[in-house]
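FIELD: query
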Amino acid sequence: MKKINIILFALGLIVLSSSCSDDFGDMNTKSDAVTNIEPRYFLNAMQQEVFANYQRNVNLYPDLYSQYWANTVSGFESGRYEYVDGWIGNQWQEFYTRNLQRSLAMDNMVGDDSNYTNAIAIKNIWMVYCWSRMTDTYGDIPYFGAGTGEAVPYTSQQEIYTDLFAKLDAAVNAITDGEEQYEYNEGYDLIYEGELSKWRKFGNSLRLRLAMRISNADPAKAEAEAKAAVNGPDGLMASNNDVAKVPMWSQGWYDYLHQMAWNWGNVRMSQTMSDYLYTQSKAGEDPRTPIWFTYNVEGNATSKEDFGADRYYGLRNGKNLINPDEVDNAATINLEGGYIDFVGDGSMDAMYCPVMFYSEVLFLQAEAAMRGWIPGDANSLYMAGVQASMDYVGVDADAASTYIDGLPTLSGANEASLKQLMVQKWVANFPNGVEAWADFRRTDYPDILLPEGGVSSSASVAADTWVKRIRYSSNAHQMDQASMPESLNSVEKDRMDIRVWWDTADTKTKTSGVMSSNF
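FIELD: result
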């Protein structure tokens, strides 16, 4: 299957070359130049975009902002909130000139042929995920009419979310079990092999994620969408077999965490991550820790015992000058620990990039139940989320039980309980830095340290505060500044400490470690 993927990825790039460019203006190139390409080719390439420029688009930004990882390279100042257009600017251009064009091309090619109902519905569910990542990164973005050949005004994030909910509802309910439907089979659907029930569950679960994202910005809409998600056809993810993740392949180039953390040594475990792995349960060390992390001694993986350490230590985020000895004494990713999403059968073919864990869906339900929006016991769902993560990672049953028994229980709908829930969700979502950063901005949990070296003097983030969004790409400012929101339509005004729509509270308002804004 993986060899096929290489061919498909290359073919996807070739057939889309007419709409792929480094120029922002080409995001509006008409997509109807591509004809007679099977939908499976498009979906396969669209799914692989989660790896696109991973270091520049994810590892140097959300991975550091979520504080799963800390930067080890002096001069890489994104951890101190600098914007580098040659890095994160790729995400903007790659989405509009690749994934959006593929989506529109598929729509134009299929037209109203009812034999492709499922193919389009699955593609639309995936595009909702892609759109949500874009708007959660930037806020207001070109949305309605984007990619069709004309410059369009930026759409507000609130309007985008309303449309994303509608798209998910339509797509999940459109999927049919009819025999005449085109199928994403033979390994082309990298996530679910075309299994319709799993796509429905993912669509509903994604709807629940987005519902909880707007819990503070529009509670009434959030509650309605949460209920709709839970009651959607086939329901939510029901086990670790439903996890949404995109596999890599060992024969081709891919840009992922093993490169960043091991081969290049550009990141180490964050001190924040390390601290939470040792302070949450009466049992002490989180049993996922030695499966996720190791020490690097002259290119060899070394346990904390062999390293002579009493625990796995992390590196403080946002250092200005980085001491090599501190880097050497910080843990890194464990490629030999047996965690299926890093190593699995012992080859890089078993590495995956997570999109949504089953444990996340349980934590989402726990929060929705805590708010009284859906049936269920919040504490039971919270504990089940931790258990699902332990099972997925491969923790020994007794060790998992001991750790979970030592966790605090949730006690009502209050900030302290939400903080406890969100900390465990943050841990379980590792290494999905994109989602962890979004959760931190929404709830302001867990407690994330400010850059040790202070906010960079080149950053558009005020001192002693956190980065809240990514500014628009330089190409966007150069080519289409007139379409931007007036409050952001210059590089000077397009600041990275401006909150997106669903991020409603200032983290600096915390009192005794908790907010007063989530309930």
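FIELD: remark
The chain has a mean pLDDT of 90.
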